[in-house]
Amino acid sequence: MTYRERLVYTWSEDGCFLEGVLIQPEQSSPGRLPLVWVHGMNGCFYEPQVVAIGRELAELGHTFVCGNNRGHDSGAIMGLRDGRTFLAGATWELFDECPYDIAGWLGYTVELGFPRVALLGHSLGAHKVGYYQARRRDPRVAGLIAASPSKRVALVDPELLALAQRLEAAGRGRELLPGTGDPATGVGAVSAQTYANRAHAGLDVYGFHTANPALVSVACPLLAFYGTEEGEIGGPTELAAIRRSATDGLPVETHLFPGADHLYTGHAAEVAATIAAWLRGLPT
Q1: Which backbone phi and psi does 157 adopt, to 5 degrees?
Q2: Structurally, what CATH architecture does the domain formed by 3-154+205-279 represent?
Q3: C-beta atoms surrounding 99 within 10 Å
Q4: Cβ distance 284 to 253 under 8 Å?
Q5: What are the tens digits of pLDDT across the range 151-209?
Q6: Residue extent(s) of CATH 3.40.50.1820 domains in the chain
């Protein structure tokens, strides 16, 4: 083993306690950009497939940071610096607060001694990193990676949105919204407040369903990829949409991993090698 790993933590911009993992090469590799991984819906920093990719990247000389955000697991009680707590997790998170968490982990990584980092979001996390960078144009972000952004989560059902807004108006925003879960995939229902907030924020960052998506405001190089076995999450059609949505002149690279599922099970080395090769072409 040529890497070391340890549990770490940081604070979000708004003072939320966040746990994560740091995986580093045993020997420093000058000029190798670190990678910050933002997990998807119901995800967490300790997903085995994510850790496997992080270890492979560390073997290739890249520091890897993956931390929980307030959307980790299905439900979570999050703690603040002042001792207060709030209900979060994928069921109750507010999407438009995701920049606070992303900025926290970027700041943590920069404090390790890296002036610039690459930022990767997986699944719902891919929408989060695109949302973050489109609004902030953070100069610390050398490149953005959209790993399997979900075309389904970017859709807004007008009837569900109307119901969510009625529940919120009645003071029932924390109640689960019927019709938002998917037992076939293991994705649980979300609350009315979460659904309404996503619709208001605009999750269709990559232009799967709308014109002029947030991606047009992203100015750094972009890598996007899927596995070929991801079903309704996305694939070649969505990669083509991402290329069309990007600003003219924005360097965009897309990739498909044959045989890989949504978590790239059994394909960690291949995914890490593709990411590392792309990272080597970015300015440090």
Answers
A1: -90, 115
A2: 3-Layer(aba) Sandwich (3.40)
A3: 21
A4: no
A5: 988 889 999 999 999 999 999 999 999 878 665 445 678 999 999 999 999 999 999 99
A6: 3-154+205-279
